[in-house]
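Folding Task

Wanted — backbone structure
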Amino acid sequence: MTRPMLSLALALALPLGAAAVAPVPAQSQAPTQDDLAAVNRAIRSITTLKARFTQTDRNGQVQMGQMLLKQPGKIRFQYDGDGLLIISDGKSLYFIDYDVRQQQRWPIRNSPLGALLDPSRDLSRYGKLVETGDARVVSVDVRDADHPEYGVINLVFTRKASAPGGLELYGWVAKDAQGNRTSLRLTDLAYGVDIPDRSFTWRDPRPNTRPVR
C-alpha cells in the first residue's frame, strides 16, 4: 500500500486478535446486550484521552505516534518523525501529508471512526458484539448496513474499573470497502487530561492556501 493510502485506511476504516489482549488463560463468557450498552456508555463517558498508538498495516509495516481525543468529535493522530497527520475538527476528518503537500477531507459520519467521534452514532443500531472467549475482553463490530462503502471498524475493550464506563479502549481493526485492513493498538492511556482546542488545528500543506487553518 502506498504511503497516502496506508494512513487513509486508518482514517476511513481503521488484524488485531482479541486473544492478543489477554496473555493469561481466558475466561469464557458469551457477550450480552448489556456489554453493547456498556461500550456505548464507555465511549460517551470519555471527555478527553491521550495515548500512544502503534499502527500496523496488512503488510506488517508499523508506524507509531500520539493520539489525542476530545469529545465531541475531535481527534488527532500525529505520526512520529513523519509528515503525516490525521485530524478531526469535530465535523470533518482530514488526512494531511506535508511531504507531498496533500490534504483530503470527508465527513466524520462517512468513516467508521464515527463510532468514536459521532455522538449520534448509536451502537445499539450499528454495533454487533463479537465473541472473544474471554470475559475480560469486549469486542464490537460497527458498520452502517445502508452504506457498506464506509467500511467496518472492530473496537476492542478490556474491562477496567478505573476507565470511563468501566471499559478501556485497547484498540481497533479497520477494514475499508476494498478489504484493506489496518490495526491500531493504544498504550499509556490518560483520561481527563487538559487538551486545548488548538491541538485540533493545523497548517494547510497545499500551495497558495492560508498558512494556518
User: Anything to note?
Assistant: The helical segments are 3-12, 33-45, 114-117, 123-126. Residues 1-28 have pLDDT under 50 and may be disordered. The chain has one domain: 3-15+27-195. The longest helix spans residues 33-45.
